[in-house]
Write a structure and sequence with these properties.
The chain is mainly α. It has helices at residues 8-14, 20-28, 45-60, 65-93, 97-107; strands at residues 5-6, 43-44. The protein is elongated.
Length: 110
C-alpha cells in the first residue's frame, strides 16, 4: 500500500497549532524523525499524528522537551506491546482449540 508523504509546508498546514520553529525543534530533539531527501524532509501520516500529540502535550499540559521525550517513549513502548500482543493472539488463534483453551486458562491464573 502506498504511504502518503508530506512536505514540511504540508505539515505546517495540516497541524494548525504547529509553528515552523516548533517543528524544527521537535525534529532536532528526535521527537519526530522525518525521512531526509534532497528536496527536504518528508513526513508520513504517523508523523502528523505525533506532531498533533506533541503540540497538545506541550501547549495544553505545558510539558517541556524532556517530559515530551519521556511521554513519547512510553507511548511508543505501549504501541509496541500492543503489536506484540496482537501478534501472539494471531499465533494462538492458529493452534488447536484444546491448546488455545489451556493457554487462556493459564493466563487467568495469578
Amino acid at each position: 500500500r502506498m504511504t502518503e508523504r508530506f512536505s514540511e509546508d504540508d505539515v505546517i498546514i495540516a497541524v494548525t497549532r504547529l509553528t515552523r520553529s516548533q517543528l524544527s525543534r521537535f525534529v532536532e530533539c528526535e521527537l519526530v524523525r522525518p525521512e531526509r531527501s534532497e528536496s527536504g524532509d518528508i513526513y508520513r501520516r504517523v508523523d502528523i499524528a505525533r506532531l498533533e500529540l506533541l503540540c497538545e502535550l506541550s501547549q495544553d499540559l505545558d510539558l517541556d522537551e524532556t517530559a515530551l521525550g519521556i511521554v513519547i517513549l512510553l507511548i511508543d513502548q505501549l504501541h509496541a506491546a500492543r503489536q506484540d500482543l496482537a501478534t501472539m493472539a494471531r499465533a494462538i488463534d492458529t493452534l488447536p482449540t484444546d491448546l488455545q483453551a489451556r493457554i487462556i486458562a493459564a493466563t487467568k491464573q495469578p
